[in-house]
Amino acid sequence: MAMRFMCVSKLGKLFSIVFLAICFFVIFYNNRSHYQSTDSISKVELISNDLTALQRNKKEAEKHSIDSRIIKQVVEHGSADKTTMPPTLTPAVDDQSSAEGFTIVGEGLRVPKGKDKNFLFIKTHKCGTSTLVNMFYLFGIRRRLNFVTQPWSRALDIEMTLLPPRPGGHYNFQIAHAKFKPDRQHELLPKFRTFYTTIIRSPLKRFNSAFAYYGIDRSNKYDEKGEELSLDETINKWFDMNEANLQPTNTSCAVQNVVNGLSFDLGFPKYMERNGTLQEKIDDFIADLAQEFDYVLLTDYFDESLVLLKEQMGWKMQDIFFMKRFYTTDRSRKDSRLSQRTIDRIFKYNVVDVQLYNFFHQMYKMKARAYGKELLDQKTAEFRRLRLEFENRCFNKPEDHLASFNKEWTLTEFGEREKSCTVLHMRDVVLDFYISELQVTEDFRSPNADEMMKKWAGKHNPMEEDERDLVMTIQEDFDGHGVDQDIS
């Protein structure tokens, strides 16, 4: 009996040892697999993983630890002095030394299924957004998507009364001018199903465009004797007169439309209410935007940015066709050249925009390199060719036409038939009204459409018959053919 008990006891110990060995092996294998997989993925994916983990953990200490690493990792590829160096002159990333770890291509950039038709676009000022919004409106009209909009208004304050989506649906798109207020926008367009994006522009180019567009150039271009100043002299005159108001602490809309306008549109003023140095506030601001936005387009790489957007969203080439609508020139100035001193002052007063642009410029480079430079160049060339062919088929252009769309263009026979030509060159304020009526009337199908129009439209007139035909034709064509229909 004693012998049998000893055998059983030894057998039990043996099983225990075997069980512990198996547990140790499983733990070791899992850890080994984890580190192997971490080593094998790209830095782009590591940043994405960090951001995903960050969203799950709201502890402030961990947030700042991860944010600092993200900023440091990208800025190391950029300028040494990120507050003053011209964004357009930021040193290029060395492709040979930094290519390792950035080699995901094609499908690797695709967003999760479901986000391809749920889209938030923050429309920044003076970044080519008037060209983009018609493209987005056409995408939404074709698919009967719901827009975040205020009834019959081109303005959008998401804290005010909004037009409801179609019954049984939810909001899919936001593209109207609106400040970025993430807490509220998360309610309207939850991050788990929505692709967040915006567009930014080199602060130097954006400043020059805004300086002319908002009339500052025109109202300051003469000296005390009535003689016309050069653009360089005009800008310095305005800086000298307004230097006290040009600090980032000034959140006046009149100033921010010209100075640090990108940061103003994307929500920087609320960061000025925080404790800490200006640089700490800027770092927090940029890090938070890096978490919020899935992708940031650059006006300076307009076509390439659109191609990368298309690839990520799984859209068709025709989904990103556009027509240039507005074009700000130098207002025929005698001399529009800028001195280095003036350029330095522009960067000085746009300190937040400069750092914002430098960061997302590097992020764009990383994404472009991850997709593959040769492939991106090929796709961009194909896009430019197809878009221009489509534009030329839509319109009769005078021989001396400008690079951007102008009212002298007339529709060709093809353009009369292909209704998307008309939508792409409409004023966006008209399309704002179209969107309102489409949501209220459920695409002209609601049995109580007249009652709903009285409730929401107020004094605004409904669409004319030809306008309804335009929209219905676009929707019916898409129902029958999608965007793969023959447009030849």
In words, what does this structure look like?
The protein is mainly α and 488 residues long. The chain has helices at residues 2-40, 43-56, 60-75, 95-98, 129-143, 182-188, 203-213, 216-220, 231-242, 253-256, 261-265, 278-292, 302-313, 340-349, 351-371, 373-394, 413-417, 420-424, 428-441, 449-457, 465-481, and strands spanning 119-122, 173-174, 195-200, 295-298, 395-396, 410-411. The strands form 2 sheets. Strands 2-1-3-4 form a 4-stranded parallel sheet. A two-stranded antiparallel sheet has the order 5-6. Helix 2 packs antiparallel against helix 3 (60-75) and helix 5 (129-143) runs parallel beside helix 19 (428-441).
Any descriptors?
488 residues, mainly alpha, four-stranded parallel β-sheet, two-stranded antiparallel sheet, 4% strand, globular
